[in-house]
């Protein structure tokens, strides 16, 4: 599975570089102890990162049982445990920068990197909370860096209420924190608009998925 040779509107020759987090990332307080931090354009010159991520890094299709049918999950997945080298050095730098910034509040490091590839507007993730493991019962953080075509991340309180929308563009950072995984749900909706591929990289502490 390789999308690497699709024409890219991002310059792959640019050097990818992190920009500072402190004083620039803005916190959106949600209800019930949940919050979202957002910094558009955190990583500059990420064309080379997208190029690597759209290559053969071991993307696989997951399948789910839905009633009596076995259906493909509408996105490709690649999961990096903490001891696996990430496919682009700026991703390792990003995890370190997230640790430096959030460690006092989080109390532990970000360890794993779950990646999703949305090939086009038909790929999506349905409403859910990341509630496997400790995030089912404890506050935690999930930090997402987005590459490629912008897609909206929607959030809504569990049980109903107004939803919030964060547009996730190339190089943008969003961090879901506090009780967000338990008390809110999030999704990336399908779109009929023509959109190119998007890769989401989600950093999580150990034992959170
Ligand atoms: O694509 C995204 O940024 C979100 C992915 C997500 O929510 C998940 O994999 O749990
Ligand atoms: Fe999620």
From TrEMBL:
Gene Ontology terms: biological process: DNA alkylation repair
A GO term, aspect molecular function: dioxygenase activity
Top-level taxon of origin: Bacteria
Residues covered by the Fe2OG dioxygenase domain: 109-207
Pfam families in alphabetical order: 2OG-FeII_Oxy_2
Protein's UniProt name: DNA repair protein
């Amino acid at each position: 599975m390789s999308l690497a040779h699709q024409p890219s509107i991002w310059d792959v020759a640019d050097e990818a570089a992190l920009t500072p987090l402190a004083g620039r990332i803005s916190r959106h307080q949600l209800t019930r102890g949940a919050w979202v931090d957002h910094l558009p354009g955190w990583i500059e010159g990420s064309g080379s990162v997208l190029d690597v991520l759209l290559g053969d890094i071991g993307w696989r299709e997951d399948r789910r049982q839905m009633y009596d049918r076995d259906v493909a999950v509408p996105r490709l997945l690649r999961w990096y445990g903490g001891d696996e080298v990430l496919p682009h050095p700026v991703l390792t730098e990003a995890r370190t920068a997230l640790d430096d910034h959030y460690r006092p509040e989080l109390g532990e490091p970000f360890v794993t990197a779950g990646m999703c590839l949305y090939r086009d507007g038909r790929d999506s993730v349905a409403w859910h909370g990341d509630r496997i493991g400790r995030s089912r019962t404890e506050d935690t953080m999930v930090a997402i860096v987005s590459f490629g075509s912008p897609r909206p991340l929607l959030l809504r309180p569990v049980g109903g209420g107004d939803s919030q929308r964060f547009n996730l563009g190339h190089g943008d950072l969003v961090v879901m924190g506090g009780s967000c995984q338990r008390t809110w749900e999030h999704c990336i909706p399908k779109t009929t608009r023509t959109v190119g591929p998007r890769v989401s990289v989600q950093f999580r502490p150990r034992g959170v998925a």
